[in-house]
């Protein structure tokens, strides 16, 4: 079964399947409880530098995967949509401080989603790599816009924006634990909604467009609306992730934090993790966020002080690139498929 | 006699100066099975593509169910009740049989994105109703064994049946079948013929099909239209067409 | 008016250099079906290698020859090690692989040759020439002439030789190339080798213009809109697209930039390219496939 298949096929009820889906839900709840308990044992470094960026990158990857892995519309505009989410949320917090934080994040996401629809309009005419190039236009224009016009950053120096006080119902969330839990809760909720969505008529519409768009239109599937909805939902999720990246992770950002390299990073995460797979987003995000940290530590331990830090950085870059290429060649369906194969083998060993 | 469900009048089409169809006219009666035959390159697939709007005719018109058009969008054709299967495999290859069939129902969906995301309103009842309807068709075409398999892993003949299921599930009043039996052996062809006949009888679906195997055509269809180089050279019952000297010269004569 | 003409001509001259880079992309796209993002790091790598050897006192032509050998070797190795195992994979995966590859080339090139900005002197005098009221940079003229000669030579090579015909054939059908008598693998190596050569020339010209530095890799972002406007599969398209992007970019920078109060060069050519796409979905000279179902 393909990586896409495992996540997209919904059964209408054999008992075996019902039991398995209950097992899955139980596992997910246990995992979530475990993750929520992490601040009890982890120190601030782990929360700030590892777990928070990992979770937010997973969320961004999820957003892009809905568009690219499910609806088949490739985009390199993720950084730009993250920026829209961050700057929109910042402005709503600033100008409408009485709104509760969750509403705020959602509104920021919706604004990003609407910008995504506009950026997605060319997809009604063009396909494939030409479409990728047109999403680059959105990326560059958005990045430029937030740098150029001070209004978006409330005329701060260097167009940067800083986190206002993060609080829900009076609970202050500015501590590492608070920001971690805010991120975790957001990721959990969005993941559940995304799973629902890809298994619904909407998800089926997207996958039909991805697999064979001409046939889809001939059997009466609304292709144009489906594409634009994919752009909307995808940019909405990416926009929320951008706001978290700005306020729950970095604290202060400017538009450069959402440049083309960020878009590349997100695209790598889903290709390495697994396109059209929900779990692939977490695996891919872990790869993209954890591997550089790991290389950093290993490099520091091995060469510590022996070579110039700039050289070490170049070495890491080369090694990281080589690993990416190697995984792309070795694992066409992404790490999620690899893990799911390993899991099946493990399970069958236990059953024997 | 009732008005024909499909009327073509002087339909012409050319690609880069080469005439694919030349002032073609014929009628398809409600409830019949009409076969389009002719050598390769006679313009049969192009004709189906015009009827459901994938191509635009250079001139002439098509009337379906009393509605006359020159150019129709494919999605609109589907909504009017024109179903279609494809000559080359055009299934959604990463999806299961069930999901492919369910995709054929999307145009009947009345639920919104928000309902899908949060499982609100009519989403649950629609999902159940669609599931039942898809399972009915899957049973009807004897696909139950393959229901949860990803279609790209299935044998070719089964994939052809999935294509038919996807078209039939939306209950089209006109079904266009582009070589539904290409590449099949005799047993598979017989099986497919019986499914087409069953669909025609039980759902009262009018069928226009393209087929090369003359024994299949003669056994299955009420009405045969013969094309040669984009022109109509024969039009009538299988018997009449078989006796038509022009047809024999243009087509049957080359087969033996 | 003379200012307008000056800007326009300056833009066209820069455009010829965009065309040069874009042709490297077109060749590889036709042969391997990928937009090779690593082309930018190959340009950097060529510039760095050449300038490092010159700094060590190696003769101009010898340095050129050694760099050429290295570039062709890298290009052929890339085709072998990275792209061949990825045959038949989605276009976007190929693209991302070349992006990963660019990390490798940039990392290694900078480890070996350092990351500082190097001056590169090709011995071209840069005093402006005045024609009537219009001033034109002499360096730009020479660079554009060199690029122009190369562009014409490459178009002739790929339009009239057996290799060129084979290249056109494989775009439709990989087996067809064989009937012309050229093995597919030889063809791939020739094309990638030529792409290595093009990156050398581009690396020298761009390097002499703005110093050999990391920013050279960004020419790939300039080449992309050129290819969209011209079509990924057309050498003529790359030339015309380069001129359009070069001229419109420098005009927009002056006239639109002052209107919007800032530099528009990062995005203008992309927005222009999207405009072109909406009218011609496969570029000015790209092939539009007839959809058969």
Tell me about this structure.
The complex is a heterotrimer of chains A (352), B (256) and C (293). Chain A is built from 14 helices and four strands. Chain A is mainly α and 352 residues long. Chain A has a single domain, classed as ABC transporter involved in vitamin B12 uptake, BtuC (Orthogonal Bundle), CATH 1.10.3470. In chain A, the strands form two sheets. A two-stranded antiparallel sheet of chain A has the order 1-4. In chain A, a hairpin with a 2-residue loop joins strand 2 (167-168) and strand 3 (171-172). In chain A, helix 3 crosses helix 11. Chain A starts with a helix and ends with a helix. Helices cover 39% and strands 24% of the residues of chain B. Chain C has 293 residues and is mainly α. Helix content of chain C is 72%, strand content 2%. A two-stranded antiparallel ribbon of chain C has the order 1-2. The longest helix of chain C has 31 residues, at 2-32. The N and C termini of chain C lie far apart (54 Å). The chains are: A mainly alpha (352), B alpha/beta (256), C mainly alpha (293). The interface between A and C is large, with 44 and 46 residues.
Briefly summarize what is shown.
The complex is a heterotrimer of chains A (about 350), B (about 260) and C (about 290). With about 350 residues, chain A is mainly α. Chain A has a single domain (about 5-350), classed as ABC transporter involved in vitamin B12 uptake, BtuC.
Write the layout of secondary structure elements.
The complex is a heterotrimer of chains A (352), B (256) and C (293).
Chain A: H1 3-8, H2 15-41, H3 44-70, H4 78-95, H5 101-120, H6 128-148, E1 161-162, E2 167-168, E3 171-172, H7 176-198, H8 201-211, H9 213-218, H10 223-250, E4 252-253, H11 260-273, H12 278-303, H13 309-330, H14 335-351
Antiparallel strand pairs in A: 1-4, 2-3
Chain B: E1 6-15, E2 18-28, E3 33-37, H1 44-51, E4 59-64, E5 67-69, H2 74-80, E6 82-85, H3 97-103, H4 113-118, H5 123-140, H6 156-168, E7 174-178, H7 186-202, E8 206-210, H8 214-220, E9 223-228, E10 231-236, H9 238-243, H10 245-255
Helix pairs in contact in B: 3-5, 3-6
Chain C: H1 2-32, H2 39-55, H3 60-83, H4 91-113, E1 129-131, E2 134-136, H5 138-160, H6 162-172, H7 174-179, H8 184-210, H9 219-230, H10 235-260, H11 268-279
Antiparallel strand pairs in C: 1-2
């Amino acid at each position: 079964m393909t990586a896409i298949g495992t996540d997209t096929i919904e059964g209408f009820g054999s008992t075996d399947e019902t039991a398995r889906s209950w097992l899955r839900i139980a596992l997910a709840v246990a995992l979530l409880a475990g993750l929520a308990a992490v601040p009890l044992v982890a120190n601030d470094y782990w929360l700030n530098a590892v777990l928070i960026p990992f979770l937010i990158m997973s969320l961004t990857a999820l957003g892009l995967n809905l568009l690219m892995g499910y609806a088949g519309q490739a985009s390199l505009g993720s950084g730009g949509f993250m920026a829209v989410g961050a700057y929109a949320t910042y402005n709503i917090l600033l100008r409408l401080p009485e709104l509760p934080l969750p509403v705020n994040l959602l509104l920021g996401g919706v604004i990003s989603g609407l910008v995504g629809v506009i950026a997605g309009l060319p997809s009604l005419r063009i396909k494939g790599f030409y479409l990728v190039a047109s999403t680059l236009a959105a990326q560059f224009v958005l990045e430029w816009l937030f740098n150029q016009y001070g209004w978006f950053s409330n005329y701060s120096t260097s167009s940067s924006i800083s986190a206002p006080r993060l609080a829900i119902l009076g609970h202050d969330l500015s501590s590492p634990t608070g920001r971690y839990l805010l991120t975790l809760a957001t990721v959990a909720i969005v993941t559940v909604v995304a799973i629902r969505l890809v298994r619904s008529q909407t998800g089926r519409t997207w996958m039909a467009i991805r697999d064979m768009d001409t046939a889809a239109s001939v059997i009466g599937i609304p292709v144009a609306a489906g594409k634009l909805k994919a752009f909307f939902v995808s940019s909405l999720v990416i926009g929320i992730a951008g706001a978290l990246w700005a306020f729950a992770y970095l604290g202060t950002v400017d538009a450069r934090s959402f440049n083309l390299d960020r878009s590349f990073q997100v695209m790598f995460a889903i290709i390495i993790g697994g396109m059209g797979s929900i779990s692939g987003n977490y695996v891919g995000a872990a790869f993209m966020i954890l591997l550089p940290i790991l290389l950093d530590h290993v490099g520091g331990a091995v060469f510590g002080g022996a070579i110039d830090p700039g050289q070490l950085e170049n070495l890491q870059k080369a090694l990281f690139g080589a690993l990416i290429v190697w995984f792309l060649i070795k694992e066409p369906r992404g790490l999620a498929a690899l893990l799911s194969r390993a899991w099946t083998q493990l399970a069958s060993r236990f059953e024997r | 006699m009732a008005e024909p469900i499909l009327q073509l009048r002087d339909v012409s089409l050319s690609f880069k100066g080469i005439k694919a169809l030349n002032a073609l006219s014929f009628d398809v009666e409600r409830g019949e099975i009409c076969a389009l035959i002719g050598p390769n390159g006679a313009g049969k697939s192009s004709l189906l593509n015009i009827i459901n709007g994938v191509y635009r005719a250079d001139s002439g018109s098509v009337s379906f169910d009393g509605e006359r058009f020159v150019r129709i969008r494919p999605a609109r054709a589907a909504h009017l009740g024109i179903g279609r299967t494809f000559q080359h495999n055009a299934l959604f290859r990463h999806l299961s049989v069930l999901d492919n069939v369910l995709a054929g129902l999307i145009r009947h969906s009345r639920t919104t994105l928000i309902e899908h995301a949060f499982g609100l309103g009519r989403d649950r009842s629609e999902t159940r109703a669609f599931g039942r309807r898809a399972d009915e068709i899957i049973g009807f075409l004897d696909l139950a064994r393959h229901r949860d398999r990803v279609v790209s892993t299935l044998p070719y003949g089964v994939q052809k049946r999935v294509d038919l299921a996807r078209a039939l599930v939306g209950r089209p009043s006109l079904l266009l079948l582009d070589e539904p039996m290409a590449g099949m052996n005799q047993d598979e062809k017989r099986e497919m013929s019986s499914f087409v006949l069953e669909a025609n009888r039980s759902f009262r679906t009018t069928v226009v099909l393209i087929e090369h195997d003359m024994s299949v055509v003669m056994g299955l269809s009420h009405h045969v239209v013969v094309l040669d180089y984009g022109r109509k050279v024969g039009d009538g019952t299988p018997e009449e067409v078989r006796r038509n000297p022009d047809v024999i010269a243009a087509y049957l004569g080359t087969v033996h | 008016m003379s200012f307008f003409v000056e800007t326009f001509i300056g833009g066209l001259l820069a455009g010829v250099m965009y065309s040069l880079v874009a042709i490297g992309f077109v060749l590889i796209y036709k042969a391997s079906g990928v937009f090779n993002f690593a082309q930018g790091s190959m340009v950097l790598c060529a510039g760095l290698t050449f300038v490092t050897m010159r700094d060590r006192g190696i003769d101009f032509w010898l340095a050129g020859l050694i760099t050429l050998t290295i570039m062709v070797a890298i290009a052929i190795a890339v085709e072998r090690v990275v792209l061949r195992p990825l045959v038949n994979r989605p276009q976007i995966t190929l693209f991302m692989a070349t992006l990963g590859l660019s990390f490798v080339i940039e990392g290694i090139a900078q480890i070996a040759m350092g990351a500082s900005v190097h001056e590169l002197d090709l011995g071209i005098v840069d005093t402006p020439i005045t024609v009537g009221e219009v001033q034109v940079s002499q360096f730009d003229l020479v660079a554009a002439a060199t690029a122009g000669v190369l562009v014409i030579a490459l178009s002739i090579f790929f339009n009239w030789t057996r290799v060129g015909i084979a290249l056109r054939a494989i775009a439709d059908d990989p087996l067809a190339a064989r009937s012309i008598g050229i093995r597919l693998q030889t063809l791939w190596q020739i094309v990638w080798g030529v792409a290595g050569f093009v990156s050398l020339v581009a690396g020298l010209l761009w390097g002499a213009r703005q110093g050999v530095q990391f920013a050279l890799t960004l020419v790939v972002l300039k080449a992309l809109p050129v290819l969209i406007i011209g079509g990924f599969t057309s050498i003529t398209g790359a030339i015309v697209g380069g001129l359009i992007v070069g001229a419109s970019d420098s005009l927009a920078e002056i006239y639109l930039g002052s209107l919007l109060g800032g530099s528009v060069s990062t995005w203008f050519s992309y927005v222009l390219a999207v405009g072109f796409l909406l009218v011609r979905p496969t570029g000015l000279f790209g092939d539009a496939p007839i959809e058969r179902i």
